[in-house]
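haha ok so turns out i had the wrong file open the whole time. this is the CORRECT one, sorry everyone. sequence first:
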Amino acid sequence: MLGVGKPMSEQSRYVAIRDSMLNHIEHHRGQLTVYLRLNQEKVPAI
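then structure:
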């Protein structure tokens, strides 16, 4: 990955996209867990 013509990451495009998508999914899973706990609902096993 290049930024302003300089290498920012040595990862392949596929790995960078995969990692960012997993991070995004984990973020929303965490948000859902907090929301359920605040509403005193049962939290599914993660």
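Residues 2-38 form one domain.
again sry for the mixup
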